[in-house]
Amino acid sequence: MKRILLFLATNLAVVLVLSLSASLLGVNRFLTANGLNLPMLLAFAALMGFGGAFISLWLSKPIAKWSTKARVISQPANATEAWLLNTVGEQARKAGIKMPEVAVYEGEPNAFATGATRNGSLVAVSTGLLASMSQEEVEAVLAHEVAHIANGDMVTLTLVQGVVNTFVVFLARVVGYAVDQMLRRNDSEQSGPGIGYMVTVVVCEILFGILASIIVMYFSRQREFRADRGAAQILGRPQPMIAALRRLGGLAEGELPKNMAAFGISGKGALSLFSSHPPIEARIAALQAQ
After folding, report:
1. Is the Cβ–Cβ distance between 24 and 126 less than 8 Å?
2. Low-confidence ranges of the chain (pLDDT < 50)
3. Which of 43, 115, 121, 192 is the most exposed place for a label (fewest CB within 10 A)?
4. Whole-angstrom Cα distance, residue 155 to residue 120?
């Protein structure tokens, strides 16, 4: 329940901020007496699309810490925490990035990386994963997350999300205006958008949003293959990553908050097109082919 409330509150705050920004910039006045002002609409769509994506990116690390109750390791309390810090530090050095924050959270087997920049990120691992995997397998999972950071995957996915969001907002309003004009072609007295415009925009945003999510999830799956390869490069061989994936295939997957699911070590979707992660079998086959 807490995660749901946080998700709703964050999105509401983002919408309010973007709506206020659009009003101050004047880009929300794309509907004119002469029809749609397409350049203005495109500016509005870009503000809403990229603005929401980048605000979510900048908030990703504090929200991840709060929602998972992750404890950042500043001073290791035991040998395991000391090993985690040393391992991530060495992997970050090999990957050419600054040392990310390292955290542990209570939960079923999973891990994730998040953060707005390559040199200001967080790697978190669950207690379930630490208890269920060998040290070599945990090391491979950590390398996978470090590879995500080194590849700039958080920013890349944010840019992809911003582009598709922009098209969703833009096309929904173009279609909405066209439908509204068709419904009102015999009514010359009514001015401004009618109910047809508003209903069509809502329906189109839902439908286009579903199509857009297919595109975003495709890029997310490609990032997982790259991160697997990156982990193999950091470790010098693919076998530990293959072993970790095989172990994950037989473990109950830990659920992550929706805004972080794409950055976890494993993930499953109801349909393959909407899954943020490829099948584990496909990931293992890709590593074996190296």
Report:
1. no
2. 252-253, 269-270
3. 192
4. 12
